[in-house]
Amino acid sequence: MRFDVQAKVAQNSFDYFEKTLITQNGFREYDVRWLLGKEVNPNGFLVLGKAFGTFARKFVKESSVIVGHDFRAYSQDTARSFVVGLLSTGVRVVDLGLVLSPMTYFAQHHLGIRAAAMITASHNENGWTGLKLADGLSSTLGPEGISQFKNLVAGGNFLTGAGTYEAYEDIFCHYQADIVGRGKVSRPIKVVLAAGNGTAGRFAPSVLREMGCEVIEQDCTPDWTFGKHNPNPEDIKFLHAISAATVEAKADLGIGIDGDGDRIGVVDDRGHEIFSDKLGLLLARWMAPHVPGRSVVIDVKSTGLFYCDPILQQHKIPVVTWKTGHSYIKAKVAETDAFAGFEKSGHWFLNRPFGRGYDDAPHSAAYVVRYVADMSKPLSELVAELPKTWESPTMGPYCADDVKYNVVDDVTRQYEADRASGAKVAGRRIKEIITVNGVRFVLENDSFGLVRASSNKPQLVLVAESRGSEDELYAIVDHIRARLAATGRIGEYDQEMPERKK
User: Fold this and answer.
1) 440 and 453 inside one domain
2) What is the pLDDT of residues 31-41, one digit of tens each?
3) Shared-domain flag, residues 39 and 106
4) Can you tell me the distance from the alpha carbon of 347 to that of 324, in angstroms, rounded to the nearest whole number?
């Protein structure tokens, strides 16, 4: 039958239009993502719409669903298929059209609708598609919700009804007014803004100009081939391009935004890349006097400087470490009533009084430029005031979805054995093992290495930070890489360590 879910359908065939393709590997920890044509087809999105309409009515107790989509060649078509599926379940569809993910989350608050779907593959390369699904205000599906959704898709027992459709075209005006209404910059700020030819180029420059910034646009024109580089703030090529433009323009800073607008990457006035965890620490310091005693949440990839920061300690700010992933950190920020959550990847979750607790790159960028404007020093000097550490980029070696968690479990056991035996990594003993998400081993001098499974791609994630030296950083990374290579399950890395400074 037409809507029986299949695990394999030839793309260049009649079956591609007459059958439904949805592979099981697309249902991940907190997102759903597939390669279009190979793992999901348009009929698949129709069935996904049927399932989410049923999910919204049964589990969210919501009869309306907001829908938005990102800027990819196929996103509007997949969104339309999804909407048809939603309508068949009897829900009211509010279609935002082309938007950023955070604009979808904002629309939920603005319109009072607790269910939403964003058709996006975020920062994944071309060919990927997927969904971010909301089951409440500032809440997206975690593992339990994804499991429920997956079971609905597989079971095929969908609610039926005559849904209604409306296009809502004014959301950006309200979204921009909300950000700018929190305050403009206190002095002139020049910003290079890079969108990687993705969705953010349609919206983010306007937000920062309304903030009072001079904006130099870089790759803000639309190009769904993403010909220069993937719009990913952790991609070194993307950051290097922003760095060059920032130095050339003599700008105060450069900002890069990812493919669906919920992640930020920043370079300072000298063109030096600032990993988002360290920039998050600077903002947390700035915000702390206004929220004494409130916690801050960081992910396991983030710098260890949060734990010993004197300003956070002065204002009695507890630091909560939690799993990497936008749904995880968003939920932990809400659970602990933290004033903010920061991920090394560039997801920032600014909570009251600074935001609503969801990840929003233009909103985060607005706070960065306010921060730079309010301080009397260039951003490079502010960063230099932090204790010196050496951080690796986030590296992703290929590891198949069906084995990646087993590989991480195996590596975890090895590092736990190293700690027990007193074996050394980079010449130092392991003093602590953190297993809240993969394995983060902490050395005697608080340097660390991390291995975890990617939640949205067939990859592992490798990150390291040294408190001692660049040489120690490379030694930690080399140790992890050798251990992973020994598993025989690791493929090509998505990016490599930069060349050592001479």
Assistant:
1) yes
2) 899 999 999 99
3) yes
4) 10
